[in-house]
C-alpha cells in the first residue's frame, strides 16, 4: 500500500505543469532593433505626435503628408548602449521609410500608430531607466 501511495504522489508531482523557459513570450509589437550600424541610417521626415510606454511596450504615433500610410515602415533602432546611472539612461532612434517620399505628392496629413517591444533591450538590470527617443524631445520614464 505504501508503494502505491509513493508512486501516486511521485506521479502527481512529476505531472504538475511547469513553465517552459523555451516558450516564446507574447510580444507587444515589433522588436526593437539592436544594431549600432543602423542607428545613423537616413530617415524620411515625419512628426512625432505621441509616445507612451506601458510595461516594456512603446507606442508611438507619427504623422506626415502623403496619400496613405500603406507601405510605411517605422523601425526603432538602438546601439544597445545603456549608461549606468540611477536611473539608467537608454535611448533609441525612430527610422521612418516612406516609399512615396520624393514621388507623387499628396497634401493630406496621415497619422499611424506603431508599437515596439523593448524587452530584448531593457532587461531587468537596466530598469528603471530614462528612455530617450533620439532626435525628439521625448524622454520616457520606464520602471
Describe this structure in words.
By secondary structure, the protein is mainly beta. The chain contains 1 helix and 9 strands; from the N terminus they run H-E-E-E-E-E-E-E-E-E. The strands form 2 sheets. The protein has a 5-stranded mixed beta sheet, with no helix packed on it. The protein has a 4-stranded mixed beta sheet with strand order 1-7-4-3, with no helix packed on it. A hairpin with a 2-residue loop joins strand 3 and strand 4. The chain is elongated and about 45 Å long. Mean pLDDT is 83; it is low at 1-25.
What's the helix and strand layout?
Blueprint: H1 2-14, E1 30-31, E2 33-34, E3 47-54, E4 57-66, E5 73-78, E6 88-97, E7 108-117, E8 129-134, E9 139-142
Parallel strand pairs: 1-7, 2-5, 6-8
Antiparallel strand pairs: 3-4, 4-7, 5-6, 8-9
Summarize this structure as a short list of keywords or feature phrases:
143 residues, mainly beta, 5-stranded mixed beta sheet, 4-stranded mixed beta sheet, elongated
Tally the helices.
1
Low-confidence segments, ≥5 residues, pLDDT <50?
A: 1-25
What portion of residues is helical?
Answer: under 10%
The pLDDT mean sits at: 83
Number of strands: 9
What fraction strand? 35-45%
Strand order of the largest sheet: 2-5-6-8-9
* Biggest pleated-sheet summary: 5 strands, mixed
Structural class category: mainly beta
Rg over alpha carbons: 22 Å
What is the overall shape? elongated
**Distance between the ends:** 54 Å
Query: Secondary-structure element sequence?
Result: HEEEEEEEEE
